[in-house]
Fold these 2 entries.
Entry 1:
Amino acid sequence: MDRLTTVPLNVESIRKDFPILKRKINGHPLVYLDSAATTQKPKQVIQALTGFYEKHNSNVHRGVHTLSQEATELYDASRQKVADLINAKFEEVVFVRNATEAANIVLYSWAMKNLKKGDEIVSTVMEHHSNIVPWQSLQKQGVKLKFVDIDEEGKLKMEQFSELLTPRTKLVAVTQVSNVLGTINPAGEICKMAHDNGSLVFVDAAQSVPHMPVDVKNIDCDFLMFSGHKMLAPTGIGCLYGKADILESMEPFLLGSDMIKSVSLEEATFRESPWKFEPGTPNFGDAVALGAAVDYLQKIGMNNIREHEKGLAGHALNAMQDVKGIKIFGPKDTDIKGGVVSFNLGDIHSHDLATVLDNEGIAIRSGHHCAMPLMDRLGIAAASRASFYIYNTKKEIDMFINALEKARRIFKL
Ligand code: 7TS
């Protein structure tokens, strides 16, 4: 299919796949607007998980018996599905627990070895803590961190980015989509500028891979991370992508068990990527379920998912602008915004607002969203956030807007 041709999602049919959406919360139907924190799971994924344990469970990469071979085949097949989703090679996809663990592998196995006193990392003020805190730890070995600011609209100041790149910049660590502002950053352009400068790029794709087509070869990033639980899969499984030659050049960070090639009492040699980064018995059950999640998303089509969320974000932004006293953070242009709208309503604390909405059955996120530096930059302590996914409807957004109006009345705004 032409990449630009999209078809609308059959949301009614999709919703039937998600058992939790039948739940009532405080006497109301659940309106789940917190998918940026974690998504709900369709029965296809739940069944893949239980089906694995009912029919195929056995440890991978170590047995010759039938079950072990089946488990290994399913585990490998899931890795290939993830690789196909992001246009990577099999050996470039390392299974980890979550995005945060992926960043830490790059920290311990690449950055700590390759960065020296005086080297620099360029990141941005809109990063999730998982893409700041690991790099901060390099400061004790003399590495300097620099941050690209945002403009009034919540977009990265690209001119400033260009100015911050110096011959000392060894790494650029940037999110593809902000979990607070929803800003879609020009990841490809950032990689091009960084590479022209001789710097590697680490892309945080926790909020992009679940929501839009992501092609690592096209972006040309060196590393990329994301979490399965934000894309219909269970918790405890995520991915680190790394370019094959870079992963091959890296020493493993955790040692022991399945990642070795041979061991004597004196020394060990390690297997190649991805296995050398997956020590011990891996989380193959959840990886198999992640494969089912990828199948589910691919069947709908990542372009179609992006268009659906764009429509929801546009609908929400239009309606929210009419709510008196609201302040919306991030771009209003849906071409550069994912399905995330953060805001504050008058001086109502986001936790209070989230509680009022919860009474109506509506789940939104409140707090600092693990982006405290961004909160500081915006001059706020916290924000509310509605985030959308394949199972959300414009009707649900209207219910959310009505609940905001109710909150205004309760708090006498
Ligand atoms: N990067 C981004 C952009 C994120 O949004 C998150 C999680 C992470 C990294 C970390 O992912 P984890 O799976 O390792 O925890 N973001 C959120 C959020 O916005 N609300 O709850 C978790």
Entry 2:
Amino acid sequence: MKITSVKSHVLQYELPEELGYSQQYYARRTAHIVEVSTDEGITGWGECFGPGAIAVANAAIVEKVIAPMILGADPLDRDVLWHRVYNLTRDHGQKGMPLQALSGVDIALWDIAGKVAGLPLHKLIGGAHRTRVPAYGYGMMLKRESVADHVARFADEAAAIRDMGFVATKMKLGLGPRDDIKLARAVRDGAGDGFRIMADANHCYTTADAFHVGRALDEMEFYWFEEPVAPEDLDGYRELRAGLRVNISGGEAEFNRWGWRAILENRGLDIAQPEVCALGGVSEYLRVLALCHAHFTPVVNHVWGSAVAVAVNLQLLAAMPPLPGGLNPWEPMLEFDTTDNRFRDELLAEPLDIQGQVKASGGTVAVPDGPGLGVEPDRAFLAHYAWNT
Ligand code: CA
């Protein structure tokens, strides 16, 4: 079996309204789907993390840098190909875009392996520890509106996401420490006592500001405080983890086993959030998962992007061993963005209908059991939303 082509599909559409997080506002949604074809007619699908123009640059890495390294090779040799690509690009980026590009290709090779074996990805890894995964809904994005309008909207949105059936919800921070505490209070009031809530700073604070906000989150019984400080600030992470009760989470901006080794050995995380579409694909995710569990750090995957990313994450969450084990073990969750996303809701020939499943089941989503990722993109949809740069 031979790889005959490696193609990127970069998709984009105008959002119905602008959304923001602590670093920027955005008005368009992008997705970057990778398609690997073979001489035996089997096609694998993957996805690369990275919005907007980042996706366009990543597509150039996929098609101009990685494709020539693997064309003609056996797609089942995915770990051999991973290391060939990584070793040949190491001098030009051990983190960031080369790894994001490699991730999409690696995921597609795992999809091919599953289709060749006639098995879902979770079976290739070792089986399903769970056949349904609880989902949390995030929303409560920033907008160009007053603090008072944010407060009112965050309270309403927290209640709405709870009523959709999600098992937890997550808000954005980023107006500044004093106003962010007001937003957190609105979310606690909107969601009600006892509902699991989390806050995501997208690394907008200094350590001192993060302590200020974190103490308020402690009082309001938030479950986790995500990316409080810059991903490079390993000591800030360690100090916050030692000094706050709320779980410190992060890792979506960390790459490969060597990056993860540093943050874990520094004891900076209560909960790890690896992004399979960025850190190096399924091959590298499995090594990072083992590293996290070797440090007794539970994992809740970071999930962003299209239905392809959701499917691969459902497969990985199914195959994640319990940590720690027990009669009532700690359970991971599926991250789900409740804002407008056609690439997740309409990309597939047979949509996953996450919202419908959550509503009907009391907050859980079934793991796809078809071969590979268990999902197939609709080619007419890919053509319709292609971003011709
Ligand atoms: Ca995040």
